[in-house]
Amino acid sequence: xxxxxxxxxxxxxxxxxxxxxxxxxxxxxxxxxxxxxxxxxxxxxxxxxxxxxxxxxxxxxxxxxxxxxxxxxxxxxxxxxxxxxxxxxxxxxxxxxxxxxxxxxxxxxxxxxxxxxxxxxxxxxxxxxxxxxxxxxxxxxxxxxxxxxxxxxxxxxxxxxxxxxxxxxxxxxxxxxxxxxxxxxxxxxxxxxxxxxxxx
Length: 200
Hints:
Elements (H helix, E strand, L loop, with lengths): L3 H12 L3 H22 L3 H27 L16 H21 L1 H10 L3 H7 L5 H11 L4 H9 L2 H9 L5 H26 L1
Helix pairs in contact: 1-10, 2-3, 2-10, 3-4, 3-10, 4-5, 4-7, 6-7
C-alpha cells in the first residue's frame, strides 16, 4: 500500500488540469450546505431533523463525487447530489454511522475516533455495490479498515497544516483544500480496495 505522502501525491496528479471543475463543484457543495445550515438553525429541533435529512445524501454525494476525480474522471456538477438517487440507503448509512460514533464517544473520546475511522469507507463501498444494504457496507468498511485505522488517522492529521493556512485566507483556501482532501480520501479507499483484492 502506498504511503500517505504518495496517496496525497496521487490526488494532486488526479487533479492536475482539473482544479477548476473540482473547485467549482466544491463551491456548489459549500453554498448548499451553508444555506441548509442557515435555514435549519432557525427552526429548533425540527431544523436539526431537516438538516440530517438533507446532509445525508450530500455526504454520500461528496465522498463519491471526488472518488470520480481519483479515478481520472471529471463528473458533472450535479454529481454532488447523487446521494438523492440513493436517498434511503444514504440516509440510513448516515444516521447509523452518526449514532454508532456518538455511542462510542459517550464511552470515551478515543473509542469514538476509532469508530469513525472504522466506518470511514462505508460511502465508497455503498457506491461500488449498488445492491448492497447500508449495514453490509458498514460491516465491509470495518473489515477493510482492520489494521489501517492508525494509517488513516495519520492521513487525516497530515491535512491540519493546510487547514490552518486556509483559515488565514479567511476560509477561501478551503475551496482548494476540500477537493484535495476528498480526492486523496478516494485514493486511500482505492489502495484499500486494491490490497483487499490482492489478499482475496
